[in-house]
Amino acid sequence: MPFVTDDPNMLDDWLVVGPATTTPRTTRLLGETVQLWTDADGTPQCRLGDRPLTVQSRYGYFWVCPSGRPARALFDFPEHSEPGRRIIDCGGIGVAVSGLRVIENFLDMAHFPFVHADYLGKVPHTEVAQYQVQVEPATGEIWATDCRFWQPRASAAHDSGSEVLYKYRVMQPFSAMLYKSSFRAGALDAIGLFLQPIDDEHVVAHTLLACYDDDSTDAELIAFQHTIFGQDKPILENHAFKRMPLEGRAETPTRGDTSSVTYRRWLRERGMRFGVRAAA
Q1: Residue that wins the pLDDT comparison between 140 and 117
Q2: Which of the two residues, 246 and 121, has the higher pLDDT score?
Q3: Which of 99, 227, 256 shows the shortest CA–CA distance to 154?
Q4: Which H/E stretch holds residue 220?
Q5: Does residue 138 share a domain with residue 190?
Q6: Over the stretch 52-78, which tens digit does the pLDDT of each residue have?
Q7: Helix 99-107 vs helix 258-269: angle between axes, to the nearest 10 degrees?
Q8: pTM greater than the 0.85 cutoff
């Protein structure tokens, strides 16, 4: 196996390798360079050297199964095809840290008032209200529900503060979704975070919006996401440990870290090794 890992959590799953709109091109995956293109009939192709790789095009991205033996189907994303939603690829941003760190940060509401002040939070509104977290037996996905947080500007379309309803979903170790209050009554905007693993300590973070917003331009929506991610990036890249420690005593959780605790336990139960810091 030419890739930098033998972890089946990576080799036997579907890994994003960037947008399906730009081909032919090369990109990096698990320490190797792969070639991507689309045949004349629209069929996606991927090759590592002379070896063809299993690939599919879904949700506007290419997804590769490195082993060619996917343990499961790619996760469902029904909001992507719902009428009336705007689908916007916000581009890929490189981050020099384990992808597991990026997903954990995505799940963390406690940092909103400090890292995303005047956008997703503001002192003194710092309390993380109790919420529910469970692993769905049918899909094995993590869901965090009943998440609420006061935000001064929850999205590009907001210009005043409000309490925002959140739901988080972790489908794969390197893929997660956020559902949050929308301007459309009774609906939730969806934000997908799909991480392309370059190696154990580098990813490209691809963000996809499936939202209801008739006022903001594509450029404004993308700029807002880049602002938020730009605030997270230096924090992520300055972790003492680039890789995620999964042993219980390495980093102390707080009451607001229920999602993180569940995510780390879920990774341990999967036997996750890629992007993980070895126990001392």
Answers
A1: 140
A2: 246
A3: 227
A4: helix 218-237
A5: yes
A6: 999 999 999 999 999 999 999 999 999
A7: 150
A8: yes
Q: What element of type H or E holds 107?
A: helix 99-107
Whether 222 and 91 have beta carbons less than 8 Å apart is answered as yes
Q: If you ran DSSP here, which 8-state letter would residue 173 be given?
A: T
Cα-Cα-Cα-Cα dihedral of 125, 99, 27, 22, to 10°? -30
75 within a domain of the structure (yes/no): no
Task: Name every residue whose Cβ is closer than 8 Å to that of residue 136 and which is 6 or more positions away in sequence.
Answer: 142, 143
Same domain, 38 and 156: no
Domain-embedded: residue 3: no
Query: 234 lies in which domain range?
Result: 84-277
Task: Determine how many CB atoms are found less than 10 A away from the CB of residue 41.
Answer: 5
In this model, does residue 29 exceed pLDDT 90? yes
Q: Report how many domains make up the chain.
A: 2
Do 253 and 137 fall within a single domain? Answer: yes
